[in-house]
Amino acid sequence: MIVTIIGPGLIGGSIAIGLRESGFSARVIGVDNNPAHAARAVELGLVDEVRPLEEAVQKSRIIVVATPVDSLTKLLPHILNIIDNEKVVLDVGSTKTPILAAVENHPNRARFVATHPMAGTEYSGPEAAIPGLFAGKCCVFTDIEKSAPDALGICHQLYAALGMRITTLGGNDHDLHVAYVSHISHIASFALALTVLEKEKDEDRIFELASGGFQSTVRLAKSSPETWIPIFRQNRDNVLDVLDEFINTVSRFRTLLIKKDFGKFEELIRHANDIRRIIDPK
Amino acid sequence: MIVTIIGPGLIGGSIAIGLRESGFSARVIGVDNNPAHAARAVELGLVDEVRPLEEAVQKSRIIVVATPVDSLTKLLPHILNIIDNEKVVLDVGSTKTPILAAVENHPNRARFVATHPMAGTEYSGPEAAIPGLFAGKCCVFTDIEKSAPDALGICHQLYAALGMRITTLGGNDHDLHVAYVSHISHIASFALALTVLEKEKDEDRIFELASGGFQSTVRLAKSSPETWIPIFRQNRDNVLDVLDEFINTVSRFRTLLIKKDFGKFEELIRHANDIRRIIDPK
Questions:
Q1: Min Cα separation B258/chain A (Å)
Q2: Where are the beta strands (DSSP E) in chain A?
Q3: ipTM for this prediction
Q4: For residue A282, what pLDDT band results from cuts at 50, 70 and 90?
Q5: Domain holding B275: CATH number?
Q6: Cβ–Cβ of A119/B211 closer than 8 Å?
Q7: Nearest Cβ partner of A253 from B187, B197, B266?
Q8: Which of B27, B65, B174, B239 has minimal Cβ neighbours within 10 Å of its Cβ?
Q9: Whole domain around residue A207: which residue ranges?
Q10: Distance (Å, rounded) from C-alpha A115 to C-alpha A135?
Q11: B279 and chain A: CB distance < 8 Å anywhere?
């Protein structure tokens, strides 16, 4: 099947690699409004060719829209305007409510499947695309009752070809869940990086002792604002709620340190250790 | 050279592995007041034998004290009481000021070298010991003017055998720096884990979408209270200062979200991206 990837960057480019390697797609067309990115996607072999949006859509059975989430709300209605009933359109955005709202009453709504493959790195652009990014990870389909069964079936096959397991959620639940397990991690990481970078102004050797633990907590602070500002903008209300809870929890540790209540501090650590059940299930 | 490791867990056990593999030490003796840990250290081949403290010290040229930092302040003066002028004692603790104070006026102070190999994982105990833990990482020697040159030379050789580069700092500077690049990361990680675990009570599927980004930021939340409570107790004042700065920084993100000031939010992210210079220097 011919697939168009709009935005062959970290996510879109890694999907292109996976669809070609698995044999799911013999031909992948790229669309990118950044000419340097478009040229790089061809050079790197992520896509076979780059074409203007309308031509690419017309030639393809499947259109994967992998742009930042703010442009999704504009692009998706336009793409649904120009497709026929055989084609399937899917997005891969990290927020869902505004995207689902943007296409809610579109006559071709059933040809669209709202998906979120939960995988990524702190890098972006075509150079960031890598093989195997999605293997064993979870992909969320949201509000599936609005999509046609054949469109869902094709998306299912596509993500299975990438090695993903698929789950379903309502769009609102999705946005709340990702605020907890993804968006807040990024803010914590940005804040940690800024705290130490600020100290570097007085203590220029401060990073000399940084080891693996520091690196893993600030890794996400390398993430690009081009990707993340639109996400925080669209998921602002959920992120604010989680941020309040996070600040309260950090403040509890602070209060216990002030009071030297290390008994209660230890209880909190033991409770936090329960995260092993989630990320270390063996 | 015969080396005694007091506390052959994550750090002590990994040192034992490295000293044997590099040929630095033909014989490593373990000391552990937990009989199960002692037996496991022998079974795993971390140490050749386990002996009572006094006997092990008497048989060894080098004594590495790798216990939690609260017991270091009691153990170190005792060990310095029973050594002769040929032996070298070193600790590997994550805090330095209280440890340096505990031996400050000891007649054998010059035989002691205060070191902190900056490496580790979120695991603990003999099972956590791994080869190559220290390779390419940084080891800090603190207050070296209080140690005899020959003792410093031996410690230098020991850490070189583990593949570490060595730097020096005053004890107070060390404790401030590790508050920034290690201790605060742990609190952020514990708080993040607790925030999501709390939400799990209402939303039992909350972790279903957790991916690599979440895992890397909460990895440290698996760290044991046995190691970390004594560290937070000893470095409380520095950790409190850094915690205040971290809370202020997270709160800035919160205020910008409330005000929908995404221009300023983007500036903060771009500034945080400067962390690439530190952890991604290519």
A1: 8
A2: 2-6, 27-31, 49-50, 62-65, 88-91, 112-117, 138-142, 165-169
A3: 0.92
A4: low
A5: 1.10.3660.10
A6: yes
A7: B187
A8: B27
A9: 174-279
A10: 16
A11: yes
